[in-house]
Amino acid sequence: MSAADAAAAASGLSSFGLMERAGRAVAATALRHFPHAHRFIVLCGPGNNGGDGYVAARALAESGAKVAAYAFGAVEALKGDAAIAFAAFASSALPINAYTPHDGDVVVDCIFGAGLARPVPDDVADVMRCVANEGLPVVAVDLPSGVDGRTGQVLGESFKASLTVTFMARKPGHMLLPGRSLCGEIEVFDIGIPRRILEAGAGSVTVNGPHLWPQLDHALNPSSHKYTRGHLGVFSGGAFATGASRLSATAGLRSGAGLVTIAGSVAALEVDTTHLTAVMMKEIDRGEDLAHWLEDARIHAFVLGPAFGDLERARQYVAMLRERRLVLDADGITAFREKPQSLFELFADGEVRLVLTPHEGEFRRLFPDIAEDEKLSKIDKALAAAERSHAVLIYKGADTVIASPDGRAAVNDNAPPWLATAGSGDVLAGIIGAHLAQGMPAFEAAAAGVWRHGATAAKLGEGLTAEDLAAAVVPLAR
Known about the structure:
Elements: H1 2-10, H2 15-33, E1 39-44, H3 48-62, E2 67-71, H4 80-89, E3 94-95, E4 105-110, H5 122-134, E5 138-141, E6 163-167, H6 172-175, H7 179-182, E7 185-189, H8 195-202, E8 205-207, E9 231-235, H9 243-254, E10 259-264, H10 266-273, E11 280-283, H11 287-293, E12 301-304, H12 311-320, E13 325-328, H13 331-334, H14 340-346, E14 354-356, H15 360-366, H16 368-371, H17 378-389, E15 392-395, E16 401-403, E17 409-411, H18 424-437, H19 442-460, H20 466-471
Parallel strand pairs: 1-2, 1-4, 2-3, 4-5, 5-6, 6-7, 8-17, 9-10, 9-12, 10-11, 12-13, 13-14, 14-15
Antiparallel strand pairs: 15-16, 16-17
């Protein structure tokens, strides 16, 4: 966004004109959401975010609202557009540490915005704590001050906003935790930067959604049959751990795979057959059994890991599946915690055919050095891991990131909190497996799977179980 701002100014657009539109958007939003505020307190920083604040303060005063401005840093030191904005405000700004909260105040936070790269100073942190203690509503401009716009991490202290006003596009800090939980409602305003300039600086990171898989959902046609819709193989755990594979298999069928087969021991399959009808069963109890099964090229993709249990056998089976499309989840990931490089080497060549689905703990087992690098955002970590493993990474959590070895990444934002329930990850693995079996490229298969997973949970509502989720997978939106 910083690059887009600079490019817009270089193209001949008035940088102060952009600031004027931004500040007036903030004022209009504050008035719309808090029409009964007794007083608007505009806290202004020393940079352009503060300049937005002085424009907003002027617009609020012109509307007839009661306004008081407070500055972090000497206003005499303001430069460029921020200095012009302060001069146009034509009023004073008291030092920020002079602010005393009162009932009826609405705080407009224009101190730091998205570009903060160091912990907030003590006097600003004191104000943040006072505002929080009084329970005052906060309208944050660009991002709540204290939140790193690149990583979403809190740099010492931050405001918790009721509402965040940002410009042109959301930033990583709006999407990644904990920043996401501090922004409140987010409103994005177009302040006039041309789309071509914005896209030139946007890179390959986006919000997850159907725009990532256009024309890849393979709509059925009259000549379709079960094999053209893809055959998915799901490996079962032992006789007392079969539920996870059933969730994956059911989700795979519901997600469009023409055939789904559960592979496991006779004891496990005897349990599975009492619960499933449309899913086929295949006895696979040894490497030799799997080798024979793999002679059938019509099995297009596999899911291995959910409640699998036997880590040594998991490593053996993964090695045999190295030429196939594979979703590796749960125990399948844990099986390689001692020697993760041995997994990466199996899938190092050719098309990307491995999808890894680690949660935080599993990610640390496979990529300990990347996980511990505090300079990296979750997006950065996912991209580094995807490149190292030559796999698509689904770095799970409330702010799930999907990353590809080619540098693309998507942050998911449609998953409700009640999706955090036992077995939901097994369902996700089955959805992605079905997409792979139908021929979707690995990144798009993973992104679409995560999106469908969240959309299904949102449709079902609070209190869902993994069984509900697997049985109700929503259609794949285009």
